[in-house]
Amino acid sequence: MAPTATLAPFFLPMSLTLRSGCKVNLLLNILGKRSDGFHELETLLHPVGLYDELSFSVADRGVQFTCSDPSLPLDGSNLVVKAANSFSARCGRAGARIHLHKRIPAAAGLGGGSGNAATTLLGLNELFGRPLTDAALVEIAAGLGSDVPFFLRSKPALGLGRGEKVTVLDPFSCLSGVWIVLVRPNFGVSTPWAYQELVKYPVALNGRPGRASELIATLRSGDLSRACGLLYNSLEAPVLAKYPLLEVFQEFFLHHQALVSLMSGSGSTTFALFDGETAAQRAVKAIPAKFGDTNWITAVPLVAS
Ligand code: C5P
Questions:
Q1: pLDDT in tens, 83-129
Q2: Whole-number mean pLDDT of the chain?
Q3: CA distance linking residue 4 with residue 56, whole number of Å
Q4: DSSP letters along 158-194, please?
Q5: What average pLDDT score do residues 156-172 get?
Q6: How far out from the chain centre does Cα 82 lie?
Q7: Which domains does the chain have, with CATH numbers?
Q8: Which residue of 25, 46, 70, 227 is most buried, as measured by CB atoms within 10 A?
Q9: What are the pocket residues of ligand 1 if the criterion is a CB atom closer than 6 Å to any ligand atom?
Q10: What single-letter DSSP state applies at residue 235?
Q11: Which atom of ligand 1 is closest in space to residue 39's alpha carbon?
């Protein structure tokens, strides 16, 4: 969907609608705990073509935020409101009405909330005539959350540091034609909890550096089957131990011709890659018979056309 805008004199939009995407981590390799409490990591982030929608319009003053999902907070704890407040603190104007139409599940390891924060920064910057530079947006985004800078571009990217130091990568041609199936059970996982639990899993806490460059080089070489063997997520150690269902999802996908299956981010979404739509849809159809119908399930091409 293309962004829509209503134009006012001087060609500043009075209102604007943008889509706000999500991601999976093809790799999330934690390298150790830092003195600031965060974890140093290397991650390969890949956008997924599933979208929330954010609408922005100019208001006299303050931020008026509404959301289609009544379970989400509307106050300053919502990343959309945090992003709007950070934007106005930086450039002194953000009287705006913002509406979020939510489709991406929360606490799912898909970065939906981080995407909403980044899209809010992009939307307000557009609405007010681009007062902030790209560098300023990146700086504000990093202060809002480790995954937020990635969503300013939503391109395949290497994330370093705590995940906020993003290098955009060229698309991997061997992934075109690959379909991704996502299943999110009817519970979420707390990201801080998952990271804190790592202390019980020293091997996962202190991953071997270099996995990211190895995976990127293999994807670039076009050897998809070898690349699939290099996908890895350190946070599976604590999360799968507490939620064994997530391991059962992975086994299920592998029995249904998945090339690979892994948890995304801190969970609770499991994703699986398939060679084409037919195999992906066959797996999707088989899920309810085995796992009931309370799971959120979807299948899309990994690389948007
Ligand atoms: O940066 P973000 O707000 O997404 O992080 C949520 C929480 O996840 C942090 O408060 C921290 O507990 C944990 N985290 C971490 N190391 C990272 C990213 C997140 O410990 N690299």
A1: 999 999 998 876 999 999 999 999 999 999 999 999 999 999 999 99
A2: 95
A3: 10
A4: EEETTTTEEEE----GGGTTEEEEEEE-S----HHHH
A5: 98
A6: 18
A7: 15-168 (3.30.230.10), 173-301 (3.30.70.890)
A8: 25
A9: 38-39, 41, 145-147, 162-163, 191-192, 195
A10: T
A11: 16
